[in-house]
Amino acid sequence: MKQINIGLIGFGTVGSGVIKILKEKSLFLRQTCGCDFVIKAIVDKDVISLRRVEVDRSILTTDGKKVIDDPQIDIIIELIGGISPAKEYIIEALQKGKHVITANKALLAECGQEISRVARKNSVDLLFEASVCSGLPVIKSLKEGLIANNINAIFGIVNGTSNYILTKMAEQGVSFQEALNEAKLKGFAEKDPSLDVEGIDSSHKLFILSTLAFRQEIRLEDIYTEGITVISSEDIKFAGELGYTIKLLAIAKVIDNGLELRVHPTLLSNDKVLSNVRGRYNAVYIRGDLTGDTIFYGPGAGMLPAASAVVADLVDLATSLISGHKEAKKVFPAKKGMSIRKIRDIETKYYVRLQALDQPGVLAQIAGILGDNKISIASVIQKRKHCQESAPIVMMTHKAREANLQQALEKINNLAVIKEKAVVVRIEE
Fold first, then answer.
1. How far apart, in whole angstroms, are the C-alpha atoms of residue 296 and residue 359?
2. Sign of the CA dihedral with 217 first, then 106, 91, and 17 last
3. Beta-carbon count within 10 A of 183 CB
4. CB-based contact 412:397 (threshold 8 Å)
5. Contacts of 113 (CB under 8 A, 6+ apart)
6. 300 DSSP assignment
7. What are phi and psi of 223, to 5 degrees?
8. I need a labelling partner for 422 at 20 to 30 A (CA). Which of 2, 62, 101, 181 fits?
9. In this predicted model, what pLDDT tens digit does every residue of 125-157 receive, in sequence order?
């Protein structure tokens, strides 16, 4: 029976989950893989505090370099997150011929191509199933199960914190801040939630999914990113009246041999599957030319879902190590093919909410500016006054070019009759 020794860097929630699974399912994993997984060393800044699982305290250390230098360790699992020192640990481990498993989506989005080259050069593998929607096997599916497909589109609700906030706003009519405060109290949101609510975390995940799906080199800056902080309970209510739900959506799709990559709040018709993904749940919808539409749905984070994805990567590596397979898998494709479309060039329908003075001729002014910029109004709803002078106007447009809409809004926002900057949400159908 072969023994595979593991160095675990990061003994937080997910690290504890990995150890828990390896302990509780040791017999099953031995029978499945034909090997024993042994945690040889655990690296963490805090080696004093008690965790959810018990470990032999002699294997705890604060010295990551010592663990990476240990010739008996076969696999390094990196679960500390962030760029540094995670990047340095991973690169040094790869250079020393150790396979690496990581859940670090930010690092992969920022430095994935560089790390991939190091892994390839040293004939070792870098696996990262837990980096995107960790409870869902979407990475493995793109790398293996859907490999024969030309992927046409990906639509993903990939950030549980933002989805929880938008769900609470929709179901309870609370404000963004009230929903965020509840998410923090329940431990669903970080003390600083900006990575989640500003769309940055979703952008990191879309980078990974798109690089694998479209098999070409992408830069993180190619992804247009917008968060949910501008969305009010009013917008969610108005969207509901129109038959839509607002979701923070990660979108990648091929249009005329160009690739659209964007993360932003999006109106989805209530009859769409993604509209009904509630709370902290994630879902990724993938359209391939052979399979058609497929969807992955489930918990995207948490101790055991994330740890499950890490252990799945461990099993994959164990299979390679036991079989003597030496050829490392290519992590990220490096080819360039499709052009990346700028946000100004996309065409879609729009929801626009304005706060305007309640007086004759206001709507005609707005419609005139939109018309001058080749934007056609599909419907208009004028609501009761919020105060003595102004009232919200909600418009749905026909399909229009983003550049034209932004040009029109610049003029509309400068009108004396407009009291607040317009809120715009793109629509996907």
1. 49
2. negative
3. 22
4. no
5. 217, 332, 334
6. -
7. -95, 115
8. 181
9. 999 999 999 889 999 999 999 999 999 999 999
* 73 three-state secondary structure: coil
Contact 250, 156 (CB under 8 A): yes
Q: Would you state the structure tokens that stand for residue 174, as one six-digit string?
A: 């609370």
Instruction: Determine how many CB atoms are found less than 10 A away from the CB of residue 378.
Output: 12
Let me know: does 90 contact 295? Beta carbons within 8 Å. no
Residue 251, number of CB atoms within 10 A of its CB:
23
Q: In angstroms, rounded to a whole number, what is the distance separating the alpha carbons of residues 112 and 99?
A: 15
For the annotated catalytic residues, the residue numbers are: 205
**Residue 96 tokens, joined:** 């020393």
Whole-angstrom distance, CA of residue 268 vs CA of residue 243: 9
Return the pLDDT at 29: 95
- pTM exceeds 0.70: yes
Rg of the chain, C-alpha, whole Å: 24
Q: Which residue has the higher pLDDT, 324 or 287?
A: 287
